[in-house]
């Protein structure tokens, strides 16, 4: 007899695109953002973690032009550029389309960088963010979102509830490279996110 995972994959129309997403669990929405050029499969361990899915509705989607999602109609008529504004808009459109009430948004690498901007612009719509590898210094990338006054405690003051953990020994994609070592870090932050507001 086959052993099925509890992950369900679906498509939804979002901003003129056919967006593929996977989900598992129930409870607090946890929207997961994949890294550049990748897709939702990077979150398979989180989606299959019964301790997490007991309390969180874990949702991972493929950006348009990535994975199993399709670009908007007549996409070939203009050059594809993932601008900050377009990135913010599609993420917000996904959580609005799926009717996620005050989700936690977790992203890694470019997804980790954009969650900082999401927090700066939409903090009243979010329960929290988890930015993995969202630092200002990454070879080949500078993240000026870290200098926004709503983010950078050293330039103004930290927003209430801000936390930072250095995950020693982790690679740039911790959720996929070594989930066993990454899981305790994630569990602590999810416990914090699940605590009463």
Structure description:
The chain has 197 residues and is of the alpha/beta class. Helices cover 28% and strands 21% of the residues. The chain has six helices and eight strands. Strands 1-2-4-3-5-6 form a six-stranded mixed sheet, with helices on both faces. The chain has a two-stranded antiparallel ribbon with strand order 7-8. The longest helix is centred in the last third of the chain and has 16 residues, at 179-194. It starts with 7 loop residues before the first strand and ends with a helix.
Features:
197 residues, alpha/beta, six-stranded mixed β-sheet, two-stranded antiparallel ribbon
Outline of the structure:
By secondary structure, this protein is of the alpha/beta class. It has helices at 44-47, 50-53, 84-97, 110-122, 174-177, 179-194, and strands at residues 8-14, 17-25, 28-33, 56-61, 104-108, 128-132, 137-138, 141-142. It is built from 6 helices and 8 strands; from the N terminus they run βββααβαβαβββαα.
């Amino acid at each position: 007899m086959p052993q099925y995972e509890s992950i369900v994959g679906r498509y939804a129309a979002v901003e003129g695109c056919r967006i593929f997403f996977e989900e598992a669990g129930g409870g607090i929405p946890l929207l997961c953002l994949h890294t550049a050029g990748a897709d939702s499969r990077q979150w398979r361990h989180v989606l299959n973690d019964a301790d997490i899915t007991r309390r969180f509705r874990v949702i991972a989607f493929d950006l348009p032009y990535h994975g199993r999602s399709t670009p908007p109609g007549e996409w070939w008529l203009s050059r594809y550029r993932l601008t900050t504004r377009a990135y913010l808009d599609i993420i917000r459109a996904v959580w609005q389309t799926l009717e996620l009430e005050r989700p936690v948004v977790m992203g890694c690498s470019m997804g980790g960088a954009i969650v900082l901007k999401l927090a700066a612009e939409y903090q009243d719509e979010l329960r929290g963010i988890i930015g993995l590898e969202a630092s200002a210094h990454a070879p080949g990338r500078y993240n000026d979102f870290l200098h926004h006054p709503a983010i950078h405690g050293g330039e103004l003051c930290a927003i209430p509830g801000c936390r930072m953990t250095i995950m020693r020994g982790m690679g740039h994609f911790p959720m996929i490279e070594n989930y066993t070592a990454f899981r305790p870090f994630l569990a602590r932050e999810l416990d914090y996110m699940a605590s009463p507001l």
